[in-house]
Design brief:
alpha+beta, elongated, Immunoglobulin-like, membrane, single chain
């Protein structure tokens, strides 16, 4: 393994408990045996600290988890990756620029009086966290459980921890799954992963009011189309007669 063979070295942080760095290697390795990751603060005269990597989810990925005592906006780490005692990668990382927040938690959904579904969730950070109370936006997605490829995604660009899913936008008689992810706008590098899904059942049936709401605009369009057609036919007839 040489410097050019350590691929896609990248770091991200939840900005609360850990800074995770991972990289790909061209062949299978025992990451804890072959690699060591040294790190130190850029501005503090402290000795290097050591992070021993583990094999990641993929057989060709190594992952190292650094757990700092604190996070502050100006914190930058100098990283040095070694393979069998030789430096193969050097870089610096500023945690504030690579924030990947934790996904929202405790999703709940309930049917409300108007027949729609109110989806709610909680922030995954405590008041002691740097991200707690910071501006955040969300995306909600939901899909029929039996048809996961048919996904609806809605953006929520305001401070809210709930979203109303309109029953008329769903197909009655099906089970649905909803999930949420977030992005802190002052730390916009990454969206969180999608949260654990919450399931609900839609028993919505089309009502007479729904039919009327659809019929009125359709009728107006048809009337306009017929009127325009009659007008052109009449003008052509007048031209022909004259």
């Amino acid at each position: 393994v040489a410097a050019g063979h350590v691929q896609d070295f990248a770091c991200f942080t939840d900005y609360d408990q850990e800074l995770v760095c991972d990289w790909k290697v061209p062949a299978q390795h025992d990451c804890s045996r072959d690699f060591l990751l040294y790190y130190k603060s850029e501005f503090l005269s402290l000795p290097n600290r050591l992070c021993v990597p583990e094999n990641g989810k993929g057989s060709l990925t190594c992952t190292c988890t650094i757990r700092p005592k604190y996070f502050v906006s100006g914190l930058t780490y100098i990283l040095a990756l070694q393979f069998n005692g030789s430096d193969v990668w050097n870089c610096s990382v500023t945690p504030a620029l690579v924030v990947k927040p934790r996904a929202p938690k405790n999703l709940a959904i309930e049917k409300i009086e108007n027949g729609n579904f109110n989806l709610s969730w909680e922030e995954s950070y405590s008041p002691s966290s740097m991200l707690f109370g910071q501006p955040v936006i969300y995306e909600v997605k939901y899909w029929r459980k039996q048809h996961p490829a048919e996904v609806s995604v809605k953006a929520i660009n305001y401070q809210a921890k709930s979203f109303e899913i309109t029953a008329s936008s769903l197909r009655g008689g099906y089970d649905y799954v909803a999930s949420v992810r977030c992005n802190y706008t002052d730390y916009p590098a990454y969206w969180s992963e999608w949260s654990k899904g919450v399931e609900f059942h839609c028993d919505y049936r089309v009502t007479a009011e729904d039919v009327l709401q659809m019929a009125v605009p359709v009728s107006c369009i048809l009337i306009m189309a017929v009127s325009v057609t009659c007008y052109f036919c009449f003008t052509k007839y007048v031209s022909y007669c004259s």
